[in-house]
Amino acid sequence: MLLHIIARGKIARSPEAELVDRYAKRLTWPFRHTELPDTGGRVPPPAHTPCRQVLLDERGRLMSSEDFATLLGRWRDGGVRETRFLIGAADGHGDEARTNADLLLGFGAMTWPHLLVRAMLAEQLWRATSILAGHPYHRSG
């Protein structure tokens, strides 16, 4: 299953970009990272179907890493060919996008800069796929 981060804004050369790249290189699942301008531009159509759309949102569902891995594994095993993770600009996502999403996912009640969210999401994708593969990277208490 393709894991596809679609984010508003440019990450350019930054410590956050290095983190995204570090975790992207570790992923054994197909991965894509698409950047859109802060305003305008269109979210590209899915490369593969069926597809799931996850919006990163401060009001989204909080999940443990294990639960996130289980969800991705269930989608993959159920025939989903692409999961898209959308990170909005400073104003987040509109009501229509929220309504059409398969999941609103939150990283806690705090507001995070979109560059850090990309890095944290890339790490959680690596963590989830390593959990599913039985890799020792993830250690739960």
TrEMBL record:
PANTHER family on file: METHYLTRANSFERASE, RIBOSOMAL RNA LARGE SUBUNIT METHYLTRANSFERASE H
Catalytic reactions on record: pseudouridine(1915) in 23S rRNA + S-adenosyl-L-methionine = N(3)-methylpseudouridine(1915) in 23S rRNA + S-adenosyl-L-homocysteine + H(+)
The species this protein was found in: Novosphingobium kalidii
Family to which the UniProt record says this protein belongs: Belongs to the RNA methyltransferase RlmH family.
Function: Specifically methylates the pseudouridine at position 1915 (m3Psi1915) in 23S rRNA.
Gene responsible for this protein: rlmH
Keyword ATP-binding: no
The protein's name in its UniProt record: Ribosomal RNA large subunit methyltransferase H
Subcellular location: Cytoplasm
Enzyme kind, highest EC tier: transferase
